[in-house]
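Customer escalation, tier 2.

The customer says the design service returned an amino acid string that "doesn't look like it belongs to this structure." They asked us to rerun it and document both sides in this ticket. The original structure tokens are below, unchanged.
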């Protein structure tokens, strides 16, 4: 076989490989005109190589970030060195639909990109090659793991029954509000409240009905609070509210609204309709408490004073 025949054969094998490889290959001149477009790009774009050849890439794909890609290609050509970007930096260069059944949850193909310089016979960079890697499986798996971790983090902060902040998370915010007061001196109030005669509800109607009452109390309370207020389930049938920028009188008005809303409502449980009340204790923060726990103790003691005073009451801490 003559040398030219061997060379032609080798070129044929190389061309066949470039057409069948599962990587997108795009060769551009320095004016961004397409010089080569392999089978991967044809299959995913729906545009044949003959149709795209000598077309300016940005005219064919106007969604491509022109300024960004131009900077990248200019740097590659100037420095005669490769550049890389991952899907985490930019999810994709070409907006191809995801056609993989395994990762069908993702709408578009996630891509890693390599830009390589191609030198001519003089050694000057005349063209660049874009290599587009489909990394949808990797990206989808990582995104699913991140979503799962976010969900776990959320679960670790919230009470499963009510969706409110759990005791530990809420107490941390009480501590943060205490420190904020120490720094800025803004009025702030703390509320502790619980459901009156809750044991009787559980004993009479069962724990499932009791859970419905707890969820109802959380729902009614949250609907009567401002966006800046923070509600948490402290434990059992007891709840806590942080009311920033609120003095004792402002807190009393908010609490009376919550108390009346609960008193006037009916919980339709699977056992029987249940009417219930709550008792609430308010403590406006002053310089007296040495830490947030003493502030919470003031609110808690006031709550028990409200219960001792006949229940279904709002009581404000006084020294």
């Amino acid at each position: 076989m003559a040398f030219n025949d061997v060379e032609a054969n080798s070129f044929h094998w190389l061309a066949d490989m470039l057409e069948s490889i599962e990587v997108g290959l795009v060769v551009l001149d320095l004016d961004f005109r397409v010089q080569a477009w392999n089978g991967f790009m044809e299959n995913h774009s729906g545009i044949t190589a003959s149709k795209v050849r000598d077309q300016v890439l940005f005219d064919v794909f106007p969604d491509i970030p022109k300024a960004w890609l131009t900077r990248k290609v200019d740097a590659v050509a100037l420095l005669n060195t490769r550049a890389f970007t991952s899907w985490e930096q930019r999810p994709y260069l070409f907006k191809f639909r995801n056609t993989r059944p395994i990762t069908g949850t993702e709408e578009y193909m996630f891509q890693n990109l390599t830009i390589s310089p191609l030198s001519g016979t003089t050694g000057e960079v005349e063209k660049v090659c874009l290599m587009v890697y489909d990394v949808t499986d990797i990206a989808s798996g990582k995104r699913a793991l991140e979503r799962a971790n976010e969900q776990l983090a959320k679960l670790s902060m919230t009470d499963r029954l009510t969706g409110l902040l759990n005791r530990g998370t809420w107490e941390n915010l009480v501590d943060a509000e205490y420190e904020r007061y120490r720094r800025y001196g803004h009025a702030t109030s703390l509320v502790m409240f619980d459901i009156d005669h809750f044991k009787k509800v559980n004993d009479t109607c069962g724990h499932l009905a009791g859970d419905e009452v707890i969820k109802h109390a959380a729902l009614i309370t949250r609907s009567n609070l401002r966006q800046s207020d923070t509600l948490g389930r402290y434990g059992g049938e007891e709840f806590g509210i942080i009311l920033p920028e609120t003095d004792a009188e402002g807190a009393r008005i908010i609490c009376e609204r919550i108390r009346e809303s609960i008193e006037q409502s009916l919980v339709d449980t699977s056992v029987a309709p249940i009417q219930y009340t709550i008792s609430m204790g308010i403590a406006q923060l002053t310089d007296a408490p040495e830490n947030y726990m003493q502030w919470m103790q003031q609110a808690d003691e006031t709550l028990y004073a409200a219960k001792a005073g006949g229940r279904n009451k709002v009581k404000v801490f006084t020294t």
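Tier 2 assessment: The sequence is consistent with the input. The domain at 158-316 is CATH 3.30.70.270 (Alpha-Beta Plaits). The mean pLDDT is 89. Sent an explanation to the customer and offered a walkthrough call.
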